[in-house]
């Protein structure tokens, strides 16, 4: 008995091992190395890296330093995107899941695939597709608007349109993932609950509010946190579609970090900014987790 | 998640430097050397249509002699300086000779990473007189000489000949100055057809267009080592440029990234300023286009903003046999860059642009070469990329009609000064 327990523990550890190795080599060590870089004055072209302690971090909070602008303006833009995109990613993802789930079994798979396909496309393709659709002077949507004698919309060159365009492109690209997760959760809700609800005279809406939503709460939390993290990491869409414009209104934090690292070659500063950004993301995720789980 | 991948790319790029440096270097090996030949590693960012052209030159060189073997490696343009930086900082897997843009030379020269070519050149006869003076002089930094030019790529004017004919203009005669440019642009603007005389880009390539107008006004981007973005010449240049949209209405408003290129491809943009690298795209699209020197849009003089490709040698290369090989190769390139010209570029070697009959018969390339004399490069200052960043975003705001030119340039100057005093 004892021997087999020891054996099963070994087997399970072996199953964990590949991931553990990957985790150590591709996450833990790089993060540790990044943390070390952030404590140095690390110029990519200078072989001597001077240890400066937390000076790179204090520069970020020093309002006379350009890093302060770079970090907080970028952060402000990134947070705007998170605030605009996350509620839609959840609501529309859930809405699509409900719609697809209500379809007859035979075409359900087809529509699930259709909505999921964009997720498999790379960001550059997404950007090109939407640049063509949204082009101010020769794009598809504005052509239609002109044919209807409506004023054309500067989709990517004016506020708030630039944010709207970025959110639409992101929704189209990634909504399939949230939808699939929600579909699985909806399938796990016991059918008897709905039957009982219907017998007691609950309307469709009431069944949704009092049965569906509470049942999929853990999934909701998962989707909320992953969507927030994903939106925080926005980079490709503004980099390719608006180039941060108009002016610097859609220049998000990751764009600034990449510039600082590889255009200015200041790896120390960039690493400090990255870690600070990661720290903010961790705090937000923990808060989301705490707030959603409080009632239980 | 997909977007998580972007975190992966950005963060791991920032963090996993060591491993990147080791593996990104030796990817595309074109030939392995056999026996006694001296191998020379050569890096270039020619991942576009120009790559095969350079590959031909290198292969011809390798066939022409047996002493040296040049190993040509193409590194994708977007990763080029990243990879170069990592090679320089690790001092391993670093190339023996590489291509560098003119506006990057200062960054590397300041850190003593490039070889002073003064002595190498004197010994072997890669001579100043064999190249365009403009291109050669760009390699003079801090009293030393660091580079051998390959080409200069200045801004040029493309125009749609069919639209010229339709507007009753001579399709062989492009506008030469501001007045002509304006009157042409107005004649070529047909609101009912949504056709415009000159669609003003609001982002790239304003990095080339704005300095061109500014230089033509007799102004400069820097003065006494400080940003000088809000000089009267600069304000005049930006006012004129903005007027094309707001006052003369020869351009639609709110042009997005590459919107002017799309309209040029669709035959709805009659005149277009861009670099010589656009040629293959127009050829593929089958547009009936003409090429001309940039008109004098400024008020004082003819001038044009340019960048260039140059050969440089890392300071760490000291093996004399290698250096001899590199010089031999560069001498060969100077005489045999006709192949390079085929990509639309004009080589900076006089053997080609002054003396080759074949070159002079080409359509675009001789026009590019005709601008060499008055081409001007980016200010020679470390981190020009960062320092100029506020200028481009403020120009973007002005051209989108959100700021007046004076205010935009004042703001850009203030931000740049802050960057300089960091």
From TrEMBL, chain A:
Membrane topology, record value: Multi-pass membrane protein
PROSITE patterns from the UniProt entry: ABC_TM1
Keyword entries, A-Z: Cell membrane, Membrane, Transmembrane, Transmembrane helix, Transport
Keyword Lyase: no
Gene3D superfamilies, A to Z: MetI-like
Segments forming domain ABC transmembrane type-1: 75-288
TM annotation in the entry: 12-36, 81-102, 114-133, 161-187, 208-235, 270-289
Entry's localization field: Cell membrane
Matches recorded under PANTHER family: ABC TRANSPORTER PERMEASE PROTEIN (PTHR30193), INNER MEMBRANE ABC TRANSPORTER PERMEASE PROTEIN YCJO (PTHR30193:SF37)
Membership in a protein family: Belongs to the binding-protein-dependent transport system permease family.
Protein name stated in the entry: Sugar ABC transporter permease
Organism: Neobacillus paridis
TrEMBL record, chain B:
Pfam families for the chain: SBP_bac_1
Signal sequence residues: 1-21
Entries under InterPro entries matching the protein: Bact_solute-bd_prot1, SBP
Keywords from the named record: Cell membrane, Lipoprotein, Membrane, Palmitate, Signal
UniProt key word Membrane: yes
CDD domains: PBP2_UgpB
PANTHER family: ARABINOSE-BINDING PROTEIN-RELATED (PTHR43649), POLYGALACTURONAN_RHAMNOGALACTURONAN-BINDING PROTEIN YTCQ (PTHR43649:SF33)
Name of the featured protein: ABC transporter substrate-binding protein
Lineage: Bacteria, Bacillati, Bacillota, Bacilli, Bacillales
């Amino acid at each position: 008995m004892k021997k087999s327990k020891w054996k099963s523990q070994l087997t399970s550890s072996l199953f964990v091992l590949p991931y553990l190795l990957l985790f150590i080599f591709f996450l833990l060590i790089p993060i540790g190395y990044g943390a070390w870089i952030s404590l140095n004055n690390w110029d990519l072209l200078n072989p001597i890296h001077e240890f400066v302690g937390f000076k790179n971090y204090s520069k970020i909070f020093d309002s006379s330093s350009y890093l302060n602008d770079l970090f907080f303006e970028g952060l402000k833009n990134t947070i705007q995107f998170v605030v605009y995109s996350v509620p839609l990613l959840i609501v529309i993802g859930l809405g699509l899941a409900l719609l697809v789930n209500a379809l007859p079994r035979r075409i359900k798979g087809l529509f699930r695939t259709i909505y999921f396909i964009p997720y498999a496309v790379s960001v550059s393709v997404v950007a090109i597709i939407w640049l063509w659709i949204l082009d101010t002077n020769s794009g598809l949507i504005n052509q239609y608007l002109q044919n209807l004698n409506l004023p054309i919309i500067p989709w990517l060159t004016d506020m708030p349109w630039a944010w709207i365009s970025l959110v639409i492109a992101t929704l189209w690209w990634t909504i399939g993932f949230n939808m699939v997760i929600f579909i699985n959760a909806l399938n796990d809700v016991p059918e008897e609950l709905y039957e009982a609800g219907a017998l007691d005279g609950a309307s469709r809406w009431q069944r949704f509010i009092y049965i569906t939503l509470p049942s999929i709460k853990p999934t909701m939390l998962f989707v909320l946190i992953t969507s927030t993290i994903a939106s925080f990491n926005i980079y490709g869409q503004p980099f390719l579609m608006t180039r941060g414009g108009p002016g610097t209104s859609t220049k998000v934090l990751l764009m600034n970090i990449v510039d600082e690292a590889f255009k200015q070659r200041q790896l120390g500063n960039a690493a400090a900014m990255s870690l600070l950004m990661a720290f903010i993301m961790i705090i937000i995720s923990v808060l989301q987790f705490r707030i959603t789980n409080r009632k239980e | 998640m997909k977007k998580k991948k972007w975190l992966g790319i950005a963060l791991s790029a920032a963090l996993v430097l060591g491993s990147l440096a080791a593996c990104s270097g030796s990817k595309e090996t074109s030939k392995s050397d056999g026996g006694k030949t001296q191998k020379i590693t050569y890096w270039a960012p020619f991942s576009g249509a120009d790559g095969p052209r350079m590959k031909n030159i290198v292969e011809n060189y390798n066939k022409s002699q047996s002493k040296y073997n040049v190993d040509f490696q193409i590194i994708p343009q977007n990763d080029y300086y990243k990879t170069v930086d990592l090679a320089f900082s690790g001092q391993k897997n670093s190339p023996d000779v590489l291509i560098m843009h003119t506006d990057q030379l200062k960054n590397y020269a300041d850190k003593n990473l490039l070889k002073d070519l003064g002595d190498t050149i004197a010994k072997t006869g890669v001579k100043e007189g064999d190249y365009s003076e403009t291109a050669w002089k760009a390699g003079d930094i801090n009293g030393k000489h660091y580079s051998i030019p390959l080409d200069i790529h200045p801004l040029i004017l493309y125009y749609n000949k069919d639209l010229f004919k339709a507007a009753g203009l001579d399709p062989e005669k492009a506008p030469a100055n501001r007045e002509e440019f304006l009157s042409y642009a107005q004649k070529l603007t047909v609101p009912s057809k949504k056709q415009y005389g000159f669609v003003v880009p609001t982002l790239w390539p304003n990095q080339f267009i704005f300095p061109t107008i500014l230089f033509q006004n007799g102004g400069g981007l820097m003065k006494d080592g400080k940003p000088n973005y809000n000089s009267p010449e600069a304000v005049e240049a930006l006012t004129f440029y903005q007027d094309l949209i707001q006052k003369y209405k020869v351009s639609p408003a709110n042009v997005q990234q590459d919107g002017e290129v799309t309209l040029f491809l669709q035959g709805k943009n009659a005149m277009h300023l861009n670099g010589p690298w656009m040629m293959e795209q127009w050829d593929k699209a089958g547009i009936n286009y003409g090429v001309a020197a940039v008109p004098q849009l400024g008020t004082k003089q003819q001038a044009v903003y340019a960048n260039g490709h140059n050969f440089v040698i890392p300071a760490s290369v000291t093996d004399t046999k290698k250096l001899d090989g590199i010089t031999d190769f560069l001498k060969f390139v100077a005489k045999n860059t006709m192949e390079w010209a085929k990509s639309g570029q004009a080589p900076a070697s006089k053997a080609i642009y002054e003396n080759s009959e074949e070159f002079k018969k080409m359509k675009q390339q001789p026009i590019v070469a005709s601008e060499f004399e008055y081409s001007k490069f980016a200010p020679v200052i470390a981190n020009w990329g960062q320092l100029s960043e506020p200028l481009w975003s403020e120009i973007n705001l002005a051209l989108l009609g959100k700021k007046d030119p004076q205010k935009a340039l004042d703001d850009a100057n203030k931000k740049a000064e802050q960057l300089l005093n960091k």
